[in-house]
Amino acid sequence: MKGERQQQDQIQKNGERPLKNSADEQVREGDLARKGPAVPSPAEPEVGSVRREAALPLNRTYFKRTGLQPSFLVLRDGRNDRPAPRPEGGTMPAGPCLIRSEEWLLAPELASLYDSWLVSENGPAADRALQRIYYRLRAEAAELLESADGDWAVVTLLSPPELAGRRSRLTALQDAQLEALFAAVAERQRQGGECRLDLLAPSPASAAEFAAQREFIEEVADQTLGHAFAAACRIGALIAPDAERAAAGEIARIADFLVLDGAAGEAAPEENAAQDFVAAAGQVLAAVRRVRPAAVVFAAGAAAAPALADLYEIGLSGIFCSAGQRTEALLRAACLTWIARQDIMDTAAGGGL
């Protein structure tokens, strides 16, 4: 589409800078820039519990600065708006595609295995069922990475509601998912392909909970693909708009990015739902910016696209939206960005008279 091509062209013109976790940065980051292979050169070891951010190659860059006014990104939520085959010689994606992994559990074959595993007691039968789930998840991950959306994907960690009170089962399922994802990445690399895989920890209630989820993801990545990949993988937090504000700020301190997920299950939210989402997003964003001014925060869900103008106004980095909403959202975002930059230029010109 013309709007998306213009967004990609603008991104390719701008210089890059690494995304840092420093709360001292005063300039909000803008465009996403997809880099090459996910595995960089060997990284320095971590010190204590603090994740190292310095002295990494440019392919760890997640965002780019865009001059006077950061662009507002319109990214893909789901795989329905792009062709399955990977285009030959196509342009690099302007940003990642959000993949909600719970949708994988709805596939008939995997749903049957998952139901069997849920009702089975701990023991050999449960282990066999989980092993079969792993192979099905690996097939889903391989299909994703072989598609156009696999160039750069942000995948949510599985967190089905029926496992909310079954911590050991949830951990086992997430471990199988992560191993399946990283095994698919390794196979893709052996075939000479390029892909980028980032992850979203679902609904952490506190910074300590997110830190534990992040450590778990990095541990599995380290064991499966090595420390270099674990250091390169960006790990964000998927949080609800009604999340506790102080907790959201502390999570932002250690997360690579945040995604506010509003009304994800609604195909056509009511008008007041979008207004409520903006109000909640503004409160969360204010709490986040107090702790980390340069934090990268996106919105997702059916309420995000209808509220695009307001989300742009309060300073979000962009939205993830579905195929049906994407064309209009791209055009609106381009218009808002152009108007804002013209205002800045006019103000600067007037001040120089």
TrEMBL record:
Top-level taxonomic group: Bacteria
Residues covered by region (Disordered): 1-51, 76-95
SUPFAM superfamilies xref list: Phosphoenolpyruvate/pyruvate domain (SSF51621)
Signal sequence residues: none
InterPro entries: Pyrv/PenolPyrv_kinase-like_dom, Pyrv_kinase-like_dom_sf
Biased composition (Basic and acidic residues): 14-34, 76-85
Molecular-function annotations in GO: catalytic activity
Protein's name according to its UniProt entry: PEP-utilising enzyme C-terminal domain-containing protein
UniProt source species: Paenibacillus agri
